[in-house]
Amino acid sequence: MSNNIATTSDSHTVEHAGEHVHRDDYASKLGMWLFLFTELLLFGGLFVLYMAYRAEYFTMFQLGAKELKIAMGGLNTIVLLSSSLTVVLSIVALQRRNIKGSIFWLISTIVFAFAFLVIKYMEWSEKFHHGMFPRGEELMNQPEGVKIFFGLYYSMTGLHGLHVIIGICLLTFMLFKILNGKVTPDKFVPLENAGLYWHLVDLIWIFLFPLFYLLH
Amino acid sequence: MAETHKEDGMVAHAHDPSYGINVMIWLILVSFTVVTVAIAGIDLGRFTLLVALIIAAIKSGFVINYFMHIKFDDVLFKVFLLLVILVLIIILVLIAFDVFYR
């Protein structure tokens, strides 16, 4: 703790020592949002694909969805929502100059993120075990629509899972920045931007969950 | 609530950030999740997915407005976000017409 405060005041003296550091929090946040828009369009394209195939294979999609466990998907929804809350709490704590609290909530977020991946891993490996993966012996015997359903399921939750992994890296990076005194109660926008990315991951899951799990 | 202002030097300042409201939002989101799972057990026929998607839209409204802070951000952020959502809806609706009335 005392180490943190020392580094924080250090960076202040550097700022006042005449070395001009350009900083524009407004633009930084706007840039993050522009990036998030491209992410929305990326997933939007996949949702369009989902819609088109669902229209073609309506009953097959319901058949495919029955293979997925609502309990697992629901649990993962709660886990991600909670991680979204903890990252907000981490930002609020930092703004309230409670660095210890901020670190605690940020670590909780990372733990939740790993919990999500573990649950996802359990789901996927169970499916793989039963041959329900692309080109797997069991899925190959299924009707065309079910194959497409699982193709979409693996690519969309897979891409989402990749975002979770990137999110973990980003949040861990922020954790070190707080520990090093690079992200401080006076300079919290990097943490806010990482938080925005994390909320996007949550946002996409909010739509993936009903589309794949709740079709019974 | 914390507020990021566009002011001298474009440096963001937090104004009275609070934990409580965010915990409230989380509770709302979790209850919506429980509701959407409960509804999935009931057979609503063709409306099953529609109801689930409406609930998802409400949930994302809370996440975007409160967790992502858009409600308290500058008007430019709101305009940009609305434009993107509009583009997504246009793409979805146009392709839906093609797919469903083929």
| Biggest sheet details of chain B | none
Mean pLDDT of chain B: 86
Strand proportion of chain B: under 5%
Give me the secondary-structure category of chain A.
mainly alpha
Give helix and strand order of chain A, one letter per element, not per position.
Answer: HHHHHHHH
Rg estimate of chain B, integer Å:
18 Å
What general outline of chain A do the C-alpha atoms trace?
Answer: elongated
Distance between the termini of chain A: 52 Å
The number of distinct structural domains of chain A comes to 1
Q: Kindly provide the radius of gyration of chain A, computed on alpha-carbon positions and rounded to a whole number of angstroms.
A: 21 Å
What CATH first level of chain A would be assigned? Mainly Alpha
Largest sheet of chain A: none
Distance between the first and last residues' Cα of chain B: 50 Å
Low-pLDDT stretches of chain A are 1-15
Helix fraction of chain B? 55-70%
The whole-number mean of residue pLDDT values of chain A reads 90
- According to CATH, what is the topology of chain A? Four Helix Bundle (Hemerythrin (Met), subunit A)
The DSSP helix count of chain A reads 8
How many β-strand runs of chain A? 0
